[in-house]
Design a protein that fits this description.
ten-stranded mixed β-sheet, alpha/beta, 469 residues, Fe-S cluster assembly protein SufB
Length: 469
């Protein structure tokens, strides 16, 4: 066996996301986005009346809006052929030992219990439509930090949820945010009290296991004045012929002098439409950081956004996308400067190979009152072969003369001279390409915790081998 074949076999064996479990749902709603299904979901969850009313309002908005004609091709989505709610367990567990054996084996293979023991302050795990596990370390809980699912938060902390739910992303923001408002299930609710620093990350893991599944988790993070929290999100799904739909909504409220870091490592299988809305409000001197990695998925449309509402607020958005054969990664970032002395930095890196397509879609708006604002945008695209494609769609609307704006973009291929140099040092061409790609994304990977940085390098090698999906 050649060294390249051994490498491919090694990483294929280590790839922990390309597997499916038997489908053993306790409850499954009828297919289709209907008001009857909304009532079924709300009834299953025994929700307050205000939540049910918002769901029906969201569905009306969804049904009244057309499918977006810009961006990636969404014409093949059949919204009537999707299960919008699948319940895998009777209730959320507080111990891994309480989970059904198949679900427990899944998360063991993904090493989530190990990560919780070694370097996490808390973990939430969602399987299809429901959170099956949620736990927060006692020493973190004692500080007043709340980390639970949104359904529980609606019942235990209703005034807090009602105050912020839907204020960052309204039900009618876009078609898929409206669908999430109607069909949401699971996700995370985090509240960090004033002055509290959660130095270890909180993590949630989202797993789609069923065919024709729509997963619509809803995440709401509130960082009170002077607090800090790092939230890590991971996602995966097995490979099926039928397409699945992932339509999450994430709302972040960063109050005065707080800091929130949101890290996403998504590796969906290549039958998933990944259509999400993620946005933050940053108040006075608050800092919001998105670190966003996108692998897999048939189509991704994702543009983490920050509204800089308070003076001195700051946004850092680091985005990476890898598109292989029959994939379109349409990703980017949006920042809106409302207040003076605000700053933003956007760094986007994309890789397209085997005929894949990447698109950077960005928006920077600097309002007339955002005096002395600073903006830095850098977009770098790497194309690995002649069949692949990369596009850039930057939009800047600057409404004041008192601002410092920088924009830089590059599109390049791997140079034959670079490959020749590395091959002359004993590497195969394939190994040399992997090394150059890892070097290309290294400035973003170093922003990850070590465990995720190692995983990122594995994913890159798998994608370069063409063995994922």
């Amino acid at each position: 066996m050649s060294s390249q074949a051994r490498l491919k076999k090694k990483f294929s064996q280590n790839y922990r996301y390309g597997f499916a479990d038997p489908e053993r749902a306790l409850f499954r709603s009828p297919k289709g986005a209907t008001h009857d299904v909304v009532d079924i979901i709300s009834g299953q969850k025994k929700e307050p009346a205000w939540v049910r009313e918002r769901r029906h309002q969201g569905l009306d908005f969804f049904l009244g809006r057309p499918v977006p004609a810009w961006g990636a091709d969404l014409s093949e989505i059949d919204f009537d052929d999707i299960y919008y709610y699948i319940r895998p367990v009777e209730r959320t567990m507080m111990s891994w030992k309480q989970l059904p054996s198949t679900i427990k084996q899944t998360f063991n293979r993904l090493r989530i219990p190990q990560y919780e023991r070694e370097f996490l302050a808390g973990v939430g795990a969602q399987y299809d439509s429901e959170n099956v596990y949620h736990h927060i370390a006692d020493k973190i809980k004692e500080t007043g930090v709340i980390f639970t699912d949104v359904e529980t938060a609606c019942k235990k902390y209703p005034s807090l949820v009602k105050k912020y739910f839907g204020t960052v992303i309204s039900a009618n923001d876009n078609k898929f945010a409206a669908l999430n408002t109607a069909m949401w299930s699971g996700g995370s609710f985090i509240y960090v009290p004033k002055g509290v620093r959660v130095d270890l990350p909180l993590q949630a893991y989202f797993r789609i296991n069923a065919k024709n599944m729509g997963q619509f988790e809803r995440t709401l993070i509130i960082a009170d004045e002077g607090s800090f929290v790092h939230y890590v999100e991971g996602c995966s799904a097995p490979v099926y012929v039928a397409s699945s739909l992932h339509g999450a909504v994430v709302e972040i409220v960063a109050l005065k002098n707080s800091r929130v870091r949101y890290t996403t490592v998504q590796n969906w299988s290549k039958n998933v439409y990944n259509l999400v809305t993620k946005r933050a409000h940053a108040h006075e001197n608050a800092i919001v950081e998105w670190v966003d990695f996108n692998f897999g998925a048939k189509v991704t449309m994702k543009y983490p956004a920050v509204f800089l509402l308070g003076e001195g607020a700051r946004a850092d958005i680091l985005s990476m996308a890898f598109a292989g054969a029959r994939q379109h990664q349409d990703a980017g970032a949006k920042v809106t400067h409302v207040a003076p002395n605000t700053s933003s930095r956007i760094i986007s890196k994309s890789i397209s190979a085997y005929g894949g397509r990447t698109s950077y879609r960005g928006l920077v708006y600097v309002g007339p009152k955002a005096l002395n604002s600073r903006v830095s945008v850098r977009c770098d695209a790497l194309i690995l072969d002649k069949k692949s494609r990369s596009d850039t769609y930057p939009t800047m609307k600057i409404m004041t003369n008192d601002a410092n704006i920088e924009h830089e973009a590059t599109v390049s291929r791997i140079g034959e001279d670079q490959l020749f140099y590395l091959q002359s040092r004993g590497l195969s061409r394939e190994q040399a390409e992997v090394l150059l790609v890892n070097g290309f994304i290294e400035p973003l990977v170093k922003e990850l915790p070590m465990e995720y940085a190692v995983e990122m390098n594995r994913l890159i090698e798998l994608e370069m081998e063409g063995s994922v999906g």
